[in-house]
Every structure is written in C-alpha cells, then in structure tokens.
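Example (one chain per record):
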Amino acid sequence: MSERRATQETTGLPGPDFEAGAEPGLGPETKQLAEPLSKEGATIAVLGATGYVGGRLVPALLAKGWRVRAVGRSATKLHCRSWGHHEHLEVARADVMDTDALERAFTGCTVVYYLVHSMTSKSGDYADLDRRAAVNMAQAAERAGVQRIIYLGGMTSEDPNLSEHLRSRAEVADLLREGAVPVTVLRAAIILGSGSASFELIRYLVDRLPLMLTPKWVRTESQPISIRDVLGYLAGCLEHPETAGQKYDIGGPFIETYDNLFQIYAEEAGLRRRWIIPVPLLTPWLSSHWLGLVSPIPVSLAKPLILGLRNRAVCHDYRIREIMPRELVDCRTAIRRALQKVQQQVVDTSWTDAGPLNPPEWAVPGDAPYAGGMVLSDSYRVRLEGCPEQLWDRVAAIGGDTGWYYGNRLWRLRGWIDTLLGGVGLRRGRRATKALAVGDALDFWRVLDVVPPERLLLQAEMKLPGEALLEFTMTQMGTGHSELTVTAKFLPRGVAGVLYWWGVYPLHGLVFRGMIGNIARNTGCTILDGPSPVPPLAVKCRLEPPENSS
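Predicted structure:
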C-alpha cells in the first residue's frame, strides 16, 4: 500500500511542476475585473443548481449575501429546494442545449458558475454533449454580457492514457476559455461529502465487502477534497478578481490511494479492516458491472468512474492556497462528517439529484384521451376514520429504509432484476427518511410532484418497455373520514409493453392492496372500508409542461 503523503499545505508554496503559463497575477484579458464584485449590484447565476455541487453552492452564496439566479431544466425542482423561495433568489429555466434560453437566463448576471457535466447519454457519446454544451455556454455568456465564468472541472494530467471522462472535463475547460468571457477553472479529484458519488461508491463497497478483489487502480494516488472546501474555493473566487482567467488545482491536505481510503472508511464506520487484493484480470467492463451489483451506482455511470480512477489525480500547483488560505479538511474528517450526515438523515444534496425532470405528456391533463397511445391503469383505495396527518406521514416515508409496506421481497427482486438489466435498482434509497421534494430519487422512482397532505406522484426510472407512474392521493371526506388511493399508470411501448403490463397485472391486487392496507393499519386508526379496487381517479396535476413540449 502506498504511504500516505502530505501536500504542501504548510508552506503554501506552488508545487515544483505547476502548470507553465499559469503564473499568479492578472492577464490582459482580466484587467476589467481588477476590483472585487459588489454584492449590491451583482447577480450570480449558478447553472446546474439542481446537481450535487450546485445544490449546495446556491445556499452557500445566499448565506454570504449574494443575489443568486439558480438555473436548471426544471423550475419546479428548483422551487422545491429548501432555499427555493429565498428573498435573494431568482429561478430561471434553461437547457444547456438551448443557447437562446441560456442567454435569457444569464441576462443581467455578472458571473456564471458552470457546474454541468454529462457522464451518460442515450446516444452513448456524452463527450459530444459536453462539447456542444460548453460552446453554447460560452456563446450565451458573451451575448448576455456576463463578465466572468467559473467552472469546476476534473483533475487531469498529461497522461496519454487519460480516460474519456477526464479528457472530456479538460476539453470543456478549453472550449470555455476559447470564448470572449474570462474563465476561472478549478480542477478537483474525488469530492468527499454525504451524497457524493465518490463517497457512496466507497461506502457501499466497504460496507458490503469484507474481502475485495479489485483492479490495479486501487493503488492509484489521488488527492481527495471535501465538499466543504470545494464550496469554499468556488465562493471565494467571487472575492478574488485575480483568479479570473486562471486555472487552479484544488485538493485536500493529503495524497491517498484508493485502498487507503477504503481502510479509513472502515475505521470511521466501526468495521473490521478490509482485505483488498488487486488482480490484473478485472477489466473496466467487469468492474463497472460488479459496482452496479453491490452499489447504487448504475453501470452506465460506474464505467466512466472506473476508467477515471486509473489516472493519478493529484495537484500540480498550490497557488490557490496563497490566494484563499483555509484550514483544509482531511479525508478522515470528511468521511466522518459524511457518515454522520447519512446516519442523521440530513443529506443536503445527492448525486441522484442531477438529471432532467420530464413528466410524460400523458401525465399532464389536457384532451380526454391521450393521443400518443393507450394509458393502462389500476387503482385501489382504503377509507379510514379521521387520521389525515398520520396517513400522510406514512405515505411520505415510503421507500428507502422504510420499504414499501408490503411485499418487500418482491420489490427487492424487481430491483435486483433492474440492476442486472443495467438500471438503477433499489439501492439509491432516499435522501431523507421524512422529507420529500420534487426531483428526489426514491429507490427506482423519481418524485414528480408532492403536495402535502394530498398527493405524491412518482415516475419510474427502472428499465421498462414503456413509461410508468405511481400516484398516491389522499382525500378528506366531508364526514371527517380520510381516503387513500394508489394508482399505477403505464404507457406501453409496442407489444412488449402490453405483455409486460398484463404479466405483472395479477401482482397489483396483491401488492397494492397489501401496501395501502398496511399504511392504513400503521396509523392506528379504524379502517372503515377497503382496501378495494376502484376506477382510476382523475389526475389533478400541478406539474410544469414537459421539457421538450412546444
């Protein structure tokens, strides 16, 4: 195992091999930013505000007194954040593939944080999506009169075998810098924090595997950084105009190997020391599928992560530490804090938060029959004497550690099948045990709408030959009674979709009756009627139109 090595945090001096041509100081293109920004007259845009880093940066900037414009593909998702109605917050809806929408979102903004990055795509070429997005970003920022872009990229080196994932991060930085707007590039390796993909990968591997047969990359060196320090550097760039037009590496105080990180986690989690055996036979394909089986990271995301772990990712310069001196968080402390957050169920953002929120067109009420195909549905209800608050509390706690109230083995079997098919499976769980917000991942569902104490609408993200929704509605009757209804809706794709629906249909009566029956019984209130099948109820939809609708 490689020995743990301290970086040059104590001296604050640049590393011996810091990037040529990136000397401290202002270049000619950054003279206009010689003065610090005024919080009175500046609006800061955060593109990617629903992602893991963006979802934490927005409240951090608001806490510092900045006026922030959160930009994402779903305004509903942004408004449903805990900070979504802050007095100094504006919300703008835009997609990185729409230059005009980006220009509108950036108009009036002084600085834009670019926190968007693709690791999966339907076409499989996420690097091409990143290139197009970066070009759109640079053009829109220039046309909107933005003075500065701040981009969080990946730690890269001159390694000729650099992974496609890391090469794409470097290419995005170069494309942004080719534009007319000065760009600050911060390059980070592993980000450690509750809910980060890197932390979740470490957590599931170490929690589940006392013995690990790993690829050789387990002894590759990296310089992890805590999410707290990432946010500190990102926010600090606003107060230091000399960082405009520059590239900086940001990392924690120690260089670690991945096997050392595994052992640190085991110690902090109170587990026995793990046996880690590197073997040469594990290919990226095998490794990514293995990760997909033992962790909540789907194969499509695990593969680029695995390929990126082969490359040494350590800081080449430490100039940022002279500009923004701070007491950096070491890996052990970062892991300890992340574990505490997970145990307390107060994870602010998660890697599962990112992604579009696209309700299917047939979920938005309009013409009576959906023109795009036949929507199949199945509905069950139960009626109780009173207890509306207790009933909603049970519904809002569904999934994750709570489970699905009935047939949990069947749910786990369905999740296991989904994992084998390359889907997300059930292991994503949920961000918090009691709170739900639009956009949250919930096992292999995504929260499309939540209206306490009336409605919870979930969209399936498992592998399916069609599109599926699961809706819980609670109605308070005039007699003081409460009625809970669960409705499954499915738009099949082709014959396979129709066969799938009728294949699982016999299980609906068993699973959904048992589910709402147990939810009702868990309230301790008297059940007056049901559970019993009912005709599907009309949808009272409060969603914004689909992202791709005209």
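Caption: The first helix runs from residue 54 to 63.
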